[in-house]
Design goal:
Elements lengths: L7 E9 L13 E6 L2 E7 L8 E12 L1 E6 L1 H6 L4 E2 L6 H9 L9 E6 L10 H8 L4 E5 L4 E4 L1 H7 L7 E3 L1 H11 L3 H16 L3 E6 L5 H10 L6 E6 L4 H6 L21 E9 L29 H13 L4 E5 L2 H14 L3 E5 L2 E2 L4 H7 L2 E4 L1 H6 L1 H7 L6 E2 L3 H5 L4 E3 L10 H10 L16 H6 L14 E4 L8 H5 L3 E6 L2 E5 L1
Parallel strand pairs: 1-4, 5-11, 6-7, 7-8, 11-12, 12-13, 13-14, 14-15, 15-17, 17-19
Antiparallel strand pairs: 1-2, 2-3, 4-20, 8-9, 9-10, 16-18, 20-21, 21-22
Length: 498
Amino acid sequence: MTGRGTEIGTVRAVRIAGPGREFLIDDEPVDIHIADGRIVDIAPIGALPARGEVIDGDGAWAVPGLWDNHVHTVQWALDSERVPLGQAASAGEAAQRMSLAPSLPDGRRVGAGFRDALWPDLPTLRVLDAMTGPVPTYLINADVHSVWLNSAALAREGFRSADGMLREKDAFEISRRLNAVDPAHGDRAVAEAGERAAARGVTGLVDFDMAWNAEAWPRRVRAGFAAHRVEFALYPFDLDRAIGAGLHTGEVHEDADAPQSARGLIHVGPLKVISDGSLGTRTAACSHAYPGDPANFGVLTVPPDELTELLTRATGAGLDAAVHAIGDRATTSALDAFTVAGAVGTIEHAQLVRHADLARFARLGVIASVQPQHALDDRDLVGRHWSEQTAITYPLASLRAAGAELRFGSDAPVAALDPWQAISAAVTRTDDDRAPWHPEERLTIDQAFEASVRSSLRPGETADIVLCGLDPRTATGGELRAMPVIATLLGGCVSHRA
């Protein structure tokens, strides 16, 4: 992408379906007038002279620009180059698929998306070696908290493992190495992925790539990236560097020579801390043990005292916090750390929450950054591995009823980067022919939009606008997932047009 597209002055004849609709007296089509990247007026069709370039909506439905609040950008962008393993039904099948995979230019085979928690057989070094031989072969779990390597890959990376599995910090290190491609290669992949995101109505995302993003994003902008807004996270291993550089959450972060067309797109985000594991790797820190493994309650990868210290330092330096907490023990620990540190920010995932902790989100002002599609992808895992837990699994309505603010994301590439998928999952709680899973946790379409946007369609707001081919308020779950996106405007400029 070489920059933002055509600057639009008028969006003609659209029906407002998302936030902002409440300020209109009826559902009749209107014209949206834009100047300097902001909405300056909304009026009946033809009531005001059209200004500048015009997009004729022809009765389409308009919603504010959509955000994905949890993305691992480089890993997501490179995912299309890796062997998809999501449909592998066993360790043997996954290993066989990798045996047939072509090697990347660096000599490695890389697959991603396997879910061994439901396999009938165990992933072992013997099985993988027998299928893949001397070619270094890497399989990344769908949740990214574990990787399965053959002997050649283990030797290449300098790790040892009796079964070929590496978990948590070791797994993250392998992913960082696999993601550390040539910057030009990575930036091209990110640019192409950004265009795909814009085609689904995305105008902003929070980037949790495990790298020093303070250099990467200005470099991408200099090269022409202008697909959407970005808030980039920092990790504890770079906290001293971030403090030394004077980075503060919310500040614009760009070079003086950034193209005018991309000014103001990149902002400093939060400090990201991964405080426990995941359900798929059976390492999420829970109150009750995992079935068949009475000593396994998951792991707090960051002890409570250390977590509190990290949040305290971040808060003192002007950085928000984003704490990964999946199990209920981890969620409680994270809320405790927010309380002591006086920190602000988000708990990422919150997939298992104690009843007593629901109201603490609102009292502390901690945002629940959740991924509705995970509830559907994991419903079978929950039935097998969390059947003895007593906390609430994948709460949405319960958190909102307790006063918590929700923000939606995908955790891409764990789930597809498509806000319409998240919206549908939140509204229907099903994506197949099964009945809704815990339908009491469903949200209304308006509530789902609130969690998916950062603005509203009314005068004075940023002109991040998505034109839809169907009315989201009456669309079925399947129609929401396949929502036709006619055009996406980023600050009044076209970032996608069908």
